[in-house]
Design a protein that fits this description.
By secondary structure, this protein is mostly helical. Helix content is about 70%, strand content about 0%.
Length: about 775
């Protein structure tokens, strides 16, 4: 910062000194009285003390709870999943965005290690650690939401704001330099001002509460929004919107102004930003995007100021040269002076055009970067909603990667996104500058009369271009109106003979068109890849290889973690459970306080409510759930274990391969749910009503479908093979006095459930070929 101010101040002092060289003002170097390195180095000690103070305000939850009353606890600077204090977090990150950028670019170093390269490489890493320790208490104050935390945060915000204001006014600068300095540091000042106002307000609000808490449950507040009523939370609004019917689209506008406004709104919604009411971005997303905007602002302002200042100095030198040799040629002057004047005019003309091209390119790159950030916010919300619905059309399913890699991607996302935004700004500026210079050269040549070569190129190229357009339009029109039925509404071929002949002749011409199309494909790939470079929500690689894109892979991990922990339905379900739990506790305390009173008003024995058997209630809920959702029956533990046992028996005794066993088990599972004809309960009713003969006939028809099932039928009748263990069990039950089971496989017992499911499955699927079983 000191070098930037010194160079800029010296330039404006030279500009203000006049055209003559007699009076020259001396340029004094601006050195801050509070050096950045010393300030952050000495700030580390009070920061560590504040961290220990905040840690002592919370208690541990798992380890050594009896030691020092469970204190100190673990303090975290920011909940990366929560939405509480999101603007304060964004302002806190914005207050250190410029410092982090200076550390990355190497203009600021807190720790300077001397030595070889393998030692000095740790300067940036150690400086980052020092910066993290210095600003940790301010972030921890926001996450703890306590009185002590707000006090610490307020002190830090006021300290940093005071130092920043002092640095703005300490140097003796000319008015232009001071104005540029204020504009450069304006985002930082606004962030610190917001923190300096919001933190004291939160401190006063916490002191005015009836119960002043040292520390609140910030995890519950940030994720479940327990500080708000359930009906007013964004998650509740989202769930209500899911349960309501989709509203009809608004009628199209009838007036011309309404139509134009609709077109503008549609363009803004599709390409820039689409607003969704009652949706709240997480604190992490807002912080990342704010840092990206501030990085674009900082780089654009500094580069434009320095480059324009340098170009102004060069222009002034050219003007001085023309003042010496004369602006207009004089009769009898030497030839080399005329040549110098011509070259100077040419340089002056190129300098003016280059300055315009530079300003246009940098301005468009800055505007494009900010619009891209707005579109990234809208795309993030759309992708998150798609994952809420289970739609993995754009974001790959979470099963394609391990949970560890998804969490690693979530941790990397913030840093990667800021870095990609910076690189995108540089690349966009270079491309736009090249395009602007090319257009400038082309327009300059046309103005000066050098346009014959362009006419020659157009004259040679227009027949091929026109013929290509005609052929492409002919193919499109014929495909729609001649070769498809229903004017292209159905993918059904019409006029086959003409189509085959036309395709034959078009093959040779399409080879030539293909060469041109390949060039267009390369150009489109470069342009689209450059445009979407700073956007991690779109991969720069094809879909099959998109996980090789590190930026997109980290974005997928980040948004999957967000979806898993902030799903509105999940959050509202947990809130309802917590509300029911609190109601049950309060109801229980009220019931315990009720007492019986006699006619004289004297207390007697307390009244107790009738206890509810939770096991019986759970079983009623279970049977109701299974009755309403038959597909859940096959996922019960007892059924799965019994199916696994029978699979092992059949595979061991009859050498059934995995494919055949899978087809058989799948058919049985489908029949066990309810296939519309014979459910298990229906079979039991049929047996109880005397329909044993009909069921036995279906059973025999089932096992007659293949030799394998016939063998199973014989073994089951003779109680051999896989059914020998079942026969032994039934014999033991008969000896014990239970004669209900016998040898009837249709008796409704847990062990016979698999056999009856097989009967129901293959009774309702008589059209299944025997080879599939």
């Amino acid at each position: 910062m000191a070098e930037f101010l010194s160079a800029l101040n010296g330039f404006y002092q030279n500009i203000g000194s006049g055209d003559d060289n007699d009076t020259q003002s001396e340029s004094t170097e601006c050195k801050s009285k509070i050096p950045t390195q010393a300030f952050h180095f000495y700030l580390t000690m009070p920061s560590v003390a504040m961290m220990l103070l905040l840690a002592c305000t919370i208690s541990r939850k798992n380890r050594w709870l009896s030691c020092l009353w469970g204190r100190p606890g673990a303090v975290f600077p920011m909940d990366i999943l929560g939405k509480s204090h999101r603007f304060s977090y964004a302002a806190a990150w914005g207050s250190i965005a410029f410092l982090a950028a200076d550390l990355v670019f190497g203009s600021t170093v807190i720790i300077k290690l001397e030595g070889p390269s393998y030692v000095t490489v740790f300067n940036t890493v150690l400086s980052m650690i020092v910066i993290g320790v210095d600003y940790f208490p301010m972030f921890a104050a926001l996450s703890l939401e306590s009185v002590i935390g707000y006090m610490v945060g307020t002190a830090y915000a006021w300290l940093l704001l005071g130092i920043q204001i002092f640095r703005e006014i300490e140097c003796d600068l000319v008015i232009e330099t001071r104005l540029i300095l204020i504009l450069r540091d304006l985002p930082n000042l606004l962030c610190l001002t917001y923190l300096s106002i919001s933190l004291p307000i939160r401190l006063i609000q916490s002191l005015r509460k009836k119960s002043i808490r040292i520390i609140s449950s910030s995890e519950m507040v940030s994720i479940l929004n327990m500080d708000k009523e359930a009906d007013l939370s964004p998650e509740a609004i989202h769930v209500k919107r899911l349960l309501r019917p989709v509203p009809p689209p608004p009628p199209p506008p009838s007036t011309l102004g309404g139509k134009l406004m609709g077109i503008v709104k549609a363009f803004v919604s599709d390409w820039i930003y689409h607003n969704t009411p009652k949706f709240r971005y997480s604190a992490r997303v807002l912080s990342v995007m704010l840092i990206g905007v501030m990085l674009i602002y900082k780089v654009t302002l500094e580069v434009m100021t320095l480059v324009i200042s340098i170009l102004a100095l060069v222009e002034r030198g050219l003007q001085l040269t023309l003042n010496v040799i004369g602006w207009v040629a004089e009769p009898g002057e030497e030839s080399h002076i005329s040549e110098i004047r011509d070259y100077t005019y040419l340089m002056y003309y190129l300098l003016e055009n280059g300055r315009i091209c530079f300003i246009v390119a940098l301005s468009l790159a800055c505007v494009g970067g900010i619009l891209g950030i707005l579109h990234m916010l809208s795309s993030y919300r759309t992708n998150l909603f798609d994952l809420y619905k289970g739609d993995n059309t754009h974001i790959p399913h979470r099963s394609t990667r391990s949970n560890a890699s998804l969490l690693v991607g979530s941790m990397r996302y913030a840093g990667y996104q800021v870095a990609y935004i910076g690189w995108g700004l540089v690349l966009h500026f270079i491309i736009l500058l090249v395009i602007a210079l090319a257009l400038c050269v082309l327009i300059t040549l046309i103005i000066n009369g050098y346009y014959k070569w362009l006419l020659t190129v157009l004259m040679n190229a227009w027949p091929a271009v026109l013929m290509t357009i005609i052929i492409l339009m002919t193919q499109t029109l014929l495909s729609k109106f001649a070769f498809l039925q229903g004017r292209g509404e159905f993918l059904a071929i019409n006029n086959r003979r003409v189509l085959f002949s036309f395709t034959f002749f078009m093959f040779f011409y399409n080879i030539f068109v293909g060469f041109l199309s390949c060039l267009l494909r390369i150009i489109k790939s470069i342009v689209i890849g450059a445009i979407f470079l700073p956007r991690l929500d779109n991969s720069a690689l094809p879909r099959r290889f998109q996980m090789f894109d590190p930026g997109f892979a980290n974005y997928c991990g980040f948004i999957h973690v967000e979806c898993a922990h902030t799903h509105p339905v999940l959050v509202m379900f947990l809130r309802i459970l917590l509300i029911f739990n609190e109601e049950n506790k309060s109801k229980k305390s009220v019931d315990e306080n009720h007492t019986a009173v006699d006619i004289n008003g004297k207390e007697k024995i307390p009244l107790k409510s009738k206890p509810v058997n939770p096991r019986a209630r759970a079983r009623w809920f279970l049977i109701y759930t299974l009755q309403s959702n038959p597909s859940l029956r096959v996922y019960r533990k007892s059924y799965i274990q019994y199916m696994k046992m029978w699979q092992e028996r059949l595979a061991r005794h009859y050498k059934i391969d995995k494919s055949t066993m899978g087809n058989l088990v799948g058919a049985m599972n489908n029949a066990f749910v309810n296939d519309g004809k014979a459910d298990i309960d229906d079979i039991s009713v049929e047996v109880s009503n005397g329909g044993v003969n009909a069921a036995q006939a279906n059973w025999n028809a089932l096992f007659g479908m293949s030799k394998l099932l016939q063998q199973i039928q014989r073994d089951m009748a003779e109680r051999k093979g896989a059914f020998s263990e079942e026969a032994d069990r039934q014999a033991e039950m008969q000896e014990a006095g239970n004669t209900d089971t016998g040898t009837n496989v249709f008796v409704k017992t847990p062990k016979n459930m698999w056999k009856r499911a097989a009967h129901s499955a293959l009774t309702t699927k008589t059209n299944v070929p025997s080879t599939d079983l």
